[in-house]
Amino acid sequence: MGFSTDNLKGFTLALLSSGFIGASFIIKKKGLRKAAAASGVRAGVGGYAYLWEPLWWTGMITMIVGEVANFVAYAFAPAVLVTPLGALSIIVSAVLAHFILKEKLHALGILGCIMCIVGSVVIVIHAPQERAITSVQQIWQMATQTAFLLYVASVIVIVFVLIFHFAPLYGSSNVLIFTAICSLMGSLSVMSVKALGTSLKLTFEGQQYFSLQYNFDGRLLSVYVLPHGLLVSYDIL
């Protein structure tokens, strides 16, 4: 995959996002520990003292900054480039936890980090070229294709079955149940974020944002969402 200027911006934002998100987990955990030590009640058993802990809020703000950077990255770079880089936040968390929280990183943890890096590199290097999107109308046409709608419906059905049938029975003993739920819903959220980010980018660049036309018994309703306002026309054919 060739690196254009937009791809480089997205790549850089995705890396920064992983750094911020990975560090946020460590900061929040230190805040939780500090709050539990001061109040004597852990958050896991109903304690809320962490809500008054500045260190916990610092971690939360750090995570928000990382998520915003990740959202913007999707507007510039292909999802197939941005999404794998999110795995690097796991490595940042693992390394910081080892040195800051004194949580020993065992051999399997190190192997997992190496596999994350190798997997991300392989996907980024061999990712297929993404078709350039030049208008939101194009996004709408792709989102309303039969194949995509069937995929969305299938994901929703499978997720509901996993949540309401398999999770109560096997969720506590099999991590794959919740992994599958997160992965399936993540596939939809990634595409949604990519579409929204691209739409905002096109709008800020001054291109037409969206247009739809409906025919009601010989009356044509046209809706145009433009960069500087909304235009609605109602014509009799």
From TrEMBL:
<dbReference type="InterPro" id="IPR037185">
    <property type="entry name" value="EmrE-like"/>
</dbReference>
<feature type="transmembrane region" description="Helical">
    <location>
        <begin position="7"/>
        <end position="27"/>
    </location>
</feature>
<keyword id="KW-0967">Endosome</keyword>
<dbReference type="GO" id="GO:0005769">
    <property type="term" value="C:early endosome"/>
</dbReference>
<comment type="similarity">
    <text>Belongs to the NIPA (TC 2.A.7) family.</text>
</comment>
<keyword id="KW-0812">Transmembrane</keyword>
<keyword id="KW-1133">Transmembrane helix</keyword>
<dbReference type="Pfam" id="PF05653">
    <property type="entry name" value="Mg_trans_NIPA"/>
</dbReference>
<keyword id="KW-1003">Cell membrane</keyword>
<feature type="transmembrane region" description="Helical">
    <location>
        <begin position="148"/>
        <end position="169"/>
    </location>
</feature>
<dbReference type="InterPro" id="IPR008521">
    <property type="entry name" value="Mg_trans_NIPA"/>
</dbReference>
<dbReference type="GO" id="GO:0015095">
    <property type="term" value="F:magnesium ion transmembrane transporter activity"/>
</dbReference>
<keyword id="KW-0472">Membrane</keyword>
<dbReference type="GO" id="GO:0005886">
    <property type="term" value="C:plasma membrane"/>
</dbReference>
<keyword id="KW-0813">Transport</keyword>
<feature type="transmembrane region" description="Helical">
    <location>
        <begin position="107"/>
        <end position="127"/>
    </location>
</feature>
<comment type="subunit">
    <text>Homodimer.</text>
</comment>
<protein>
    <recommendedName>
        <fullName>Probable magnesium transporter</fullName>
    </recommendedName>
</protein>
<comment type="function">
    <text>Acts as a Mg(2+) transporter. Can also transport other divalent cations such as Fe(2+), Sr(2+), Ba(2+), Mn(2+) and Co(2+) but to a much less extent than Mg(2+).</text>
</comment>
<keyword id="KW-0406">Ion transport</keyword>
<keyword id="KW-0460">Magnesium</keyword>
<feature type="transmembrane region" description="Helical">
    <location>
        <begin position="175"/>
        <end position="193"/>
    </location>
</feature>
